[in-house]
What we know:
Number of domains: 2
GO molecular function: phosphotransferase activity, for other substituted phosphate groups
Pfam family, one: Bac_transf
Membrane topology: Multi-pass membrane protein
Main location: membrane
Order of helices and strands: HHHEEHHEHEHHH
Strand content: 5-15%
Family: Belongs to the bacterial sugar transferase family.
Amino acid sequence: MSDTNMTDSEMSFFEEIKSYLRLYMFSRRYQKIKAGQLTWEERLLSGPSSVQRLALGRMIRARFVVGWRKTVKRLVDMIVSYTAIVCSVPLMLLIALAIKLTSKGPVLFVQNRVGLRGKTFNMYKFRSMTVDAEAGTGPVWAKKVDPRVTVIGKFLRKAHLDELPQFFNVLMGEMSVVGPRPERPYFVSELRKEIPHYDRRLAVKPGITGLAQIKRHYDETIRDVKKKLRYDVLYVRRTCPLLDFKVIGLTVLTVFFGTGR
Length: 261
């Protein structure tokens, strides 16, 4: 397979493999040095210092820890999303029927969003607003009291049921169950100008729910976005399976007790 025929994910996978191989060869050479098995020529060309050996050890451990966390996170994403889709099929059919009977327009709302490392994708939601809701205003943030929201849409948004189709985005690898909420390209472009380090939240896959979502609700001002960004950056820095499980648990409680939007 040539490089031109490989996808970004495949290229990233092979680059990761090459990095592991280089580290493995370097560590093997260090073991030979430690065991006194190198020839004098190899000793002349090798001989890492204790600082270099310590840095190498930390690098190897860090890479394996990151790789392990990514593997566990993807496994959790697959299990949770597949289970959610299978268990909610009857509910999703009822929601689709309710949307069709109460308002004109499609059942699903498809919108371009910014994901991992700035790559865009189509995000799916159950439509909770009127068709062409932004035709006269252009891109605007949703509000707590929004006249564009339909009757059934108010219930869907309160119970977070409008987000159910995003489990398909998770299965396709475009999103994760837990992560910063994906924003529209227009707002990302504007927020990059207003908020330093905004791109830090793009270091991980966007999520259906996240630390910022269980702590705060709608973004109506730049100040709201800045407050949420603190939680997003905190999640990126401390991301681990245990934190994901905690966020998922708190999200379930939020939905169950109806303390949503």
